[in-house]
Specification:
By secondary structure, the protein is an alpha/beta fold. About 45% of the residues lie in helices and about 10% in strands. It contains 10 helices and 6 strands. The protein has a 4-stranded mixed beta sheet with strand order 1-2-4-3, sandwiched between helices. Strands 5-6 form a two-stranded parallel sheet. The longest helix is centred in the C-terminal third of the chain and has 20 residues.
Length: about 280
């Protein structure tokens, strides 16, 4: 059975899809308990949706409405830092405006201080120190949804940036509520590393990716590495290389070549500065 966070995320995805089809529609998402055997929508949920939409109409109209989606306090807490959510009033019952997803490397929206996590933060910082002096390290943070895993990672990254200068921090976010393609996380990281934005067209994406690869990879390997990294992050280059042409005809070979190019690129960057991957 899916967790409450996953179910809320799926509801938000559906709401965003509906928003694209009906840009001026009034949309609200609430999260509540209900008996599955009852069938149909919960009367309590319907009442809360009606209240959110009514409070939105009676309150001051911000510039971002009607593009926002109204969410209640429960949904707000379950979604965490993955979305850009703003409160419209001091009254919590009035809900929140959800404007869209935040970038994986965006500054967390929380303002409350973090307490009781010093031991975990110290463990992560110690592992990072080992990584830059001895060998690479991998840590896995586990816990129930909403317990504070993302907050802990955010605080640890902030502490590492305080202790070490010039750390390259790359973020990527998985999505349990969708079927992401292979290398989805690496594609996010490459776009961040090359400063590729969603508004960039293909020539701009190629230029940015090639420039980033040229900073680290030997000149005689730039075209090869950039070519396969481009395949990985939806930035394909002209297929003038025989290896690239052959790989495009064989998915298994392409996967191996993309992984090798990523490892070569990561190793080259790591030669010049510490690298921290937050997935």
């Amino acid at each position: 059975m899916s967790s409450a966070s996953d179910l809320t995320l799926r509801a938000i995805r559906c709401a965003h899809a509906d928003r694209k089809r009906r840009p001026i529609a009034k949309i609200a998402v609430v999260t509540t308990r209900a008996r599955i055997s009852q069938g149909g929508a919960s009367p309590r949920a319907i009442g809360r949706v009606a209240h959110l939409l009514a409070s939105a109409e009676s309150g001051p109209a911000p510039e971002h409405r009607p593009l926002s989606i109204r969410v209640d306090m429960t949904s707000f807490r379950l979604l965490g830092d993955d979305f850009d959510i703003r409160r419209r009033r001091n009254d919590r019952s009035a809900g929140f405006d959800l404007l869209g997803e935040r970038a994986p490397n965006a500054t967390p929206r929380h303002a409350r201080p973090c307490f009781g996590r010093e031991r975990e933060i110290d463990t992560i910082c110690t592992a990072f120190q080992t990584a830059i002096t001895t060998q690479a390290q991998a840590l896995l943070i586990t816990g129930a949804p909403g317990i504070g895993k993302s907050r802990l990672a955010s605080e640890a990254v902030a502490r590492i940036n305080e202790l070490h200068v010039g750390v390259e921090v790359w973020h990527a976010r998985g999505d349990a509520a969708s079927e992401s393609p292979a290398f989805h996380l690496l594609a996010q990281i490459l776009r961040q590393a090359a400063d590729i934005g969603p508004e960039d067209n293909l020539p701009e994406r190629r230029k940015k990716l090639l420039a980033r690869v040229q900073q680290h990879v030997p000149a005689d390997s730039v075209d090869r590495v950039a070519g396969f990294l481009g395949e990985l992050c939806e930035t394909p280059f002209a297929s003038t290389q025989s290896d690239l042409q052959a790989a495009r005809r064989n998915a298994v070979v392409m996967g191996e070549k993309m992984r090798a190019a990523w490892e070569e690129f990561l190793a080259a960057v790591s030669e010049t500065r510490p690298v921290l991957l937050v997935l």
